[in-house]
Prior knowledge:
The protein is α/β, with parallel strands linked by helices. The protein is built from ten helices and eleven strands.
Amino acid sequence: MNIKQLKYFLVVAEERQITSAAKKLYIAQPPLSYQLKQLEKEVGVQLFVRTAHGIELTEEGKVFQKYAEKIVALSISAKSQIHQIKEGELGKIRIGVISSCGGVVPNEQFKKLVKYYPNVSFAIHEANTFGIVEQLQDGIVDLGIVRTPFNLEGLNFKDFHQEPMVAVTREEFFERGEIKHLNELKDRPIILYRRFQEVFNRSFRHQGIRPFYSVTCDDARTAIHWADKGLGIALVPESIAFTYAKSKIIPVKHTNWITHLNLVWRKDREVTPLMEKIIEMF
Protein backbone atom coordinates (compact mmCIF):
# COMPACT_ATOMS: atom_id res chain seq x y z
CA MET A 1 0.00 0.00 0.00
CA ASN A 2 1.33 3.44 -0.91
CA ILE A 3 0.13 7.04 -0.95
CA LYS A 4 -0.45 6.97 -4.72
CA GLN A 5 -2.83 4.02 -4.37
CA LEU A 6 -4.71 5.76 -1.57
CA LYS A 7 -5.08 8.91 -3.69
CA TYR A 8 -6.36 6.81 -6.60
CA PHE A 9 -8.81 5.07 -4.28
CA LEU A 10 -10.16 8.38 -2.95
CA VAL A 11 -10.70 9.82 -6.44
CA VAL A 12 -12.54 6.67 -7.59
CA ALA A 13 -14.65 6.74 -4.41
CA GLU A 14 -15.58 10.34 -5.17
CA GLU A 15 -16.21 9.91 -8.91
CA ARG A 16 -17.91 6.49 -8.60
CA GLN A 17 -16.71 5.66 -12.10
CA ILE A 18 -13.36 4.31 -13.27
CA THR A 19 -13.58 6.26 -16.55
CA SER A 20 -14.12 9.70 -15.03
CA ALA A 21 -11.63 8.96 -12.23
CA ALA A 22 -8.96 8.01 -14.78
CA LYS A 23 -9.58 11.26 -16.68
CA LYS A 24 -9.32 13.28 -13.49
CA LEU A 25 -6.05 11.53 -12.58
CA TYR A 26 -4.69 11.82 -16.16
CA ILE A 27 -3.99 8.10 -16.41
CA ALA A 28 -5.40 5.23 -18.47
CA GLN A 29 -8.11 2.96 -17.05
CA PRO A 30 -6.12 -0.34 -17.01
CA PRO A 31 -3.33 0.89 -14.69
CA LEU A 32 -5.91 2.52 -12.44
CA SER A 33 -7.92 -0.70 -12.20
CA TYR A 34 -4.70 -2.63 -11.55
CA GLN A 35 -3.71 -0.33 -8.67
CA LEU A 36 -7.16 -0.70 -7.10
CA LYS A 37 -6.98 -4.50 -7.35
CA GLN A 38 -3.52 -4.45 -5.75
CA LEU A 39 -4.88 -2.30 -2.94
CA GLU A 40 -7.82 -4.66 -2.35
CA LYS A 41 -5.42 -7.61 -2.40
CA GLU A 42 -3.24 -6.03 0.25
CA VAL A 43 -6.07 -5.02 2.62
CA GLY A 44 -7.75 -8.38 2.04
CA VAL A 45 -11.28 -7.13 1.36
CA GLN A 46 -13.39 -5.91 -1.55
CA LEU A 47 -13.55 -2.11 -1.47
CA PHE A 48 -15.86 -1.52 -4.46
CA VAL A 49 -18.86 -3.21 -6.07
CA ARG A 50 -20.06 -2.60 -9.62
CA THR A 51 -23.63 -1.34 -10.12
CA ALA A 52 -25.74 -0.33 -13.11
CA HIS A 53 -24.71 3.28 -12.54
CA GLY A 54 -21.00 2.75 -11.94
CA ILE A 55 -19.25 1.57 -8.78
CA GLU A 56 -20.08 1.96 -5.10
CA LEU A 57 -18.07 1.53 -1.93
CA THR A 58 -18.66 -1.60 0.13
CA GLU A 59 -19.19 -1.20 3.87
CA GLU A 60 -15.51 -2.09 4.31
CA GLY A 61 -14.67 0.48 1.63
CA LYS A 62 -16.51 3.21 3.51
CA VAL A 63 -14.51 2.50 6.66
CA PHE A 64 -11.26 2.36 4.67
CA GLN A 65 -12.12 5.71 3.02
CA LYS A 66 -12.01 7.53 6.37
CA TYR A 67 -8.56 6.16 7.15
CA ALA A 68 -7.31 6.86 3.63
CA GLU A 69 -8.39 10.51 3.91
CA LYS A 70 -6.50 10.88 7.20
CA ILE A 71 -3.36 9.16 5.85
CA VAL A 72 -3.28 11.29 2.69
CA ALA A 73 -3.90 14.46 4.73
CA LEU A 74 -1.07 13.54 7.11
CA SER A 75 1.21 12.80 4.15
CA ILE A 76 0.49 16.23 2.66
CA SER A 77 1.08 17.81 6.08
CA ALA A 78 4.44 16.05 6.46
CA LYS A 79 5.62 17.14 3.01
CA SER A 80 4.46 20.70 3.64
CA GLN A 81 6.31 21.00 6.95
CA ILE A 82 9.51 19.49 5.53
CA HIS A 83 9.35 21.90 2.61
CA GLN A 84 8.93 24.87 4.97
CA ILE A 85 11.99 23.83 6.94
CA LYS A 86 14.05 23.32 3.78
CA GLU A 87 12.99 26.55 2.04
CA GLY A 88 12.50 28.71 5.12
CA GLU A 89 9.03 29.72 3.94
CA LEU A 90 5.98 30.45 6.11
CA GLY A 91 3.78 28.38 3.80
CA LYS A 92 0.27 27.18 4.58
CA ILE A 93 -1.61 27.12 7.88
CA ARG A 94 -4.47 24.65 8.31
CA ILE A 95 -7.31 26.08 10.38
CA GLY A 96 -10.43 24.25 11.48
CA VAL A 97 -13.44 26.56 11.80
CA ILE A 98 -17.02 26.21 12.95
CA SER A 99 -19.84 27.69 10.88
CA SER A 100 -21.06 29.87 13.74
CA CYS A 101 -17.82 31.90 13.84
CA GLY A 102 -18.53 33.43 10.43
CA GLY A 103 -19.57 36.76 11.93
CA VAL A 104 -16.23 37.12 13.74
CA VAL A 105 -13.63 35.26 11.64
CA PRO A 106 -11.88 36.24 9.43
CA ASN A 107 -11.23 39.65 10.95
CA GLU A 108 -9.02 42.63 10.11
CA GLN A 109 -6.02 40.93 11.72
CA PHE A 110 -6.10 38.23 9.03
CA LYS A 111 -5.96 40.90 6.33
CA LYS A 112 -2.99 42.56 8.06
CA LEU A 113 -1.17 39.23 8.32
CA VAL A 114 -1.61 38.50 4.62
CA LYS A 115 -0.51 42.06 3.77
CA TYR A 116 2.79 41.67 5.65
CA TYR A 117 3.29 38.01 4.70
CA PRO A 118 1.86 37.62 1.17
CA ASN A 119 3.12 34.02 0.86
CA VAL A 120 0.93 32.84 3.73
CA SER A 121 -2.05 30.77 2.63
CA PHE A 122 -4.91 29.24 4.58
CA ALA A 123 -6.44 25.77 4.25
CA ILE A 124 -9.85 25.96 5.92
CA HIS A 125 -11.48 22.80 7.29
CA GLU A 126 -15.11 23.16 8.38
CA ALA A 127 -16.83 21.07 11.04
CA ASN A 128 -18.61 21.46 14.36
CA THR A 129 -16.62 22.01 17.57
CA PHE A 130 -16.27 18.29 18.29
CA GLY A 131 -15.18 17.61 14.72
CA ILE A 132 -12.54 20.35 14.86
CA VAL A 133 -11.13 18.99 18.13
CA GLU A 134 -10.95 15.52 16.54
CA GLN A 135 -9.14 16.93 13.50
CA LEU A 136 -6.64 18.60 15.84
CA GLN A 137 -5.99 15.30 17.60
CA ASP A 138 -5.57 13.53 14.23
CA GLY A 139 -3.11 16.17 13.00
CA ILE A 140 -5.32 17.26 10.10
CA VAL A 141 -5.44 20.91 11.25
CA ASP A 142 -2.87 23.05 13.05
CA LEU A 143 -5.28 25.39 14.84
CA GLY A 144 -8.99 25.31 15.55
CA ILE A 145 -11.63 27.94 16.16
CA VAL A 146 -14.31 26.41 18.38
CA ARG A 147 -17.14 27.49 20.62
CA THR A 148 -17.60 26.70 24.31
CA PRO A 149 -18.39 24.38 25.95
CA PHE A 150 -15.95 21.64 24.89
CA ASN A 151 -13.40 19.26 26.45
CA LEU A 152 -10.07 21.08 26.99
CA GLU A 153 -8.05 17.95 27.76
CA GLY A 154 -4.77 17.99 25.83
CA LEU A 155 -5.42 21.43 24.36
CA ASN A 156 -4.07 24.92 24.80
CA PHE A 157 -6.62 27.66 24.20
CA LYS A 158 -7.03 31.38 23.83
CA ASP A 159 -10.43 32.94 24.56
CA PHE A 160 -10.81 35.78 22.06
CA HIS A 161 -14.52 36.58 21.76
CA GLN A 162 -17.66 36.31 23.86
CA GLU A 163 -21.22 37.09 22.88
CA PRO A 164 -24.80 36.55 24.03
CA MET A 165 -27.43 34.34 22.44
CA VAL A 166 -30.22 36.06 20.53
CA ALA A 167 -33.57 35.02 19.10
CA VAL A 168 -34.18 35.14 15.36
CA THR A 169 -37.87 35.10 14.44
CA ARG A 170 -40.67 36.46 12.31
CA GLU A 171 -43.08 39.02 13.81
CA GLU A 172 -45.91 36.48 14.24
CA PHE A 173 -43.94 34.57 16.88
CA PHE A 174 -42.60 37.47 18.92
CA GLU A 175 -43.47 41.15 18.58
CA ARG A 176 -41.56 42.58 21.55
CA GLY A 177 -38.15 44.23 21.33
CA GLU A 178 -36.33 41.90 23.73
CA ILE A 179 -36.75 38.78 25.82
CA LYS A 180 -36.29 39.69 29.48
CA HIS A 181 -37.44 36.39 31.03
CA LEU A 182 -37.27 32.83 29.73
CA ASN A 183 -40.99 32.49 30.58
CA GLU A 184 -41.61 34.55 27.46
CA LEU A 185 -40.41 31.56 25.40
CA LYS A 186 -42.83 29.16 27.10
CA ASP A 187 -45.15 27.36 24.66
CA ARG A 188 -43.49 29.02 21.66
CA PRO A 189 -41.93 26.98 18.83
CA ILE A 190 -38.17 27.01 19.39
CA ILE A 191 -35.71 26.06 16.66
CA LEU A 192 -32.89 24.33 18.53
CA TYR A 193 -29.27 24.62 17.45
CA ARG A 194 -28.39 21.26 19.03
CA ARG A 195 -24.92 22.47 20.09
CA PHE A 196 -26.55 24.36 22.99
CA GLN A 197 -29.27 21.87 23.94
CA GLU A 198 -27.75 21.06 27.34
CA VAL A 199 -27.28 24.76 28.18
CA PHE A 200 -30.84 25.63 27.18
CA ASN A 201 -32.40 22.65 28.94
CA ARG A 202 -30.55 23.42 32.17
CA SER A 203 -31.82 27.02 32.16
CA PHE A 204 -35.38 26.07 31.29
CA ARG A 205 -35.40 23.29 33.89
CA HIS A 206 -34.15 25.69 36.56
CA GLN A 207 -37.14 27.93 35.91
CA GLY A 208 -39.64 25.09 35.65
CA ILE A 209 -40.21 25.52 31.92
CA ARG A 210 -40.71 22.65 29.50
CA PRO A 211 -39.64 24.07 26.10
CA PHE A 212 -41.24 23.06 22.80
CA TYR A 213 -38.50 22.38 20.25
CA SER A 214 -40.31 22.52 16.93
CA VAL A 215 -37.09 21.98 14.93
CA THR A 216 -33.66 20.65 15.91
CA CYS A 217 -30.54 20.96 13.73
CA ASP A 218 -26.73 20.89 13.85
CA ASP A 219 -25.86 24.22 12.21
CA ALA A 220 -26.66 27.75 13.36
CA ARG A 221 -27.18 28.82 9.74
CA THR A 222 -29.82 26.12 9.30
CA ALA A 223 -31.62 27.28 12.45
CA ILE A 224 -31.63 30.85 11.15
CA HIS A 225 -32.86 29.79 7.71
CA TRP A 226 -35.81 27.89 9.20
CA ALA A 227 -36.64 30.85 11.42
CA ASP A 228 -36.55 33.14 8.38
CA LYS A 229 -39.05 30.81 6.72
CA GLY A 230 -41.46 31.20 9.65
CA LEU A 231 -40.96 27.84 11.38
CA GLY A 232 -40.27 29.25 14.85
CA ILE A 233 -37.76 31.10 17.02
CA ALA A 234 -34.06 30.26 16.49
CA LEU A 235 -31.74 30.71 19.48
CA VAL A 236 -28.23 31.35 18.11
CA PRO A 237 -25.06 33.34 18.90
CA GLU A 238 -25.40 37.05 18.17
CA SER A 239 -22.65 37.41 15.54
CA ILE A 240 -23.95 34.62 13.31
CA ALA A 241 -27.48 36.07 13.56
CA PHE A 242 -26.35 39.49 12.33
CA THR A 243 -24.37 37.83 9.53
CA TYR A 244 -27.14 35.61 8.11
CA ALA A 245 -30.58 36.45 9.52
CA LYS A 246 -33.20 38.21 7.41
CA SER A 247 -35.84 38.18 10.14
CA LYS A 248 -36.08 40.12 13.39
CA ILE A 249 -33.17 39.72 15.84
CA ILE A 250 -34.21 39.95 19.49
CA PRO A 251 -31.76 40.22 22.44
CA VAL A 252 -32.18 37.59 25.15
CA LYS A 253 -31.46 38.93 28.64
CA HIS A 254 -30.19 35.77 30.33
CA THR A 255 -26.77 35.84 32.01
CA ASN A 256 -26.05 32.12 31.53
CA TRP A 257 -26.55 32.30 27.78
CA ILE A 258 -23.12 33.67 26.95
CA THR A 259 -20.89 31.76 24.57
CA HIS A 260 -17.13 32.10 23.91
CA LEU A 261 -15.05 31.56 20.81
CA ASN A 262 -11.66 29.96 21.51
CA LEU A 263 -8.56 29.42 19.43
CA VAL A 264 -7.20 25.95 20.29
CA TRP A 265 -4.12 23.87 19.52
CA ARG A 266 -2.55 20.67 20.84
CA LYS A 267 -0.33 20.88 23.92
CA ASP A 268 1.99 18.18 22.59
CA ARG A 269 2.39 19.83 19.19
CA GLU A 270 5.41 21.99 18.41
CA VAL A 271 4.24 25.51 17.66
CA THR A 272 5.68 26.62 14.31
CA PRO A 273 6.59 30.27 13.64
CA LEU A 274 3.47 30.68 11.51
CA MET A 275 1.24 29.14 14.18
CA GLU A 276 2.81 31.49 16.73
CA LYS A 277 1.97 34.50 14.55
CA ILE A 278 -1.67 33.40 14.28
CA ILE A 279 -1.91 32.79 18.03
CA GLU A 280 -0.43 36.21 18.79
CA MET A 281 -2.82 37.75 16.27
CA PHE A 282 -5.76 36.60 18.36
